[in-house]
Amino acid sequence: MDYKIRKSEEEWQAELSPEEYRILRQAGTERPFTGKYNHFYEEGTYSCAACDFALFDSEQKFNSGCGWPSFWGELESANIEQRKDTSHGMVRTELLCSNCGSHLGHIFNDGPPPSGKRYCINSVSLKFEEKKG
Q1: Of 24, 62, 93, 104, which has the highest C-beta tally within 10 A?
Q2: Distance in angstroms (rounded) separating the CA atoms of residues 59 and 44
Q3: Catalytic: 120?
């Protein structure tokens, strides 16, 4: 995919913390139940931690009990990229920011209505902006 934001891996390393780089740029994951947004339910917007591109609205967030922040849908404008992931002996669908190509998490077909989807996202991959007003 042709991303709007393109940087060298050296530039990403200089901008991101080691943990952010490991997850966002090397498709790592945080340990379950440790992320700051796992049990966080304030009203606002979740954006990509690497490029600030808006991804999810707090109204799309739900408690799946899986240990990572979960959303049943994405902002229409997010157009999150999906890619087949065969790492760790599993077949999953990886989610990447459509603006910069950073790893966000994975999507599963066990979410609630209306979509039936569960976007399982690393807290490290997200920034939160509280709803104003």
Answers
A1: 104
A2: 8
A3: yes
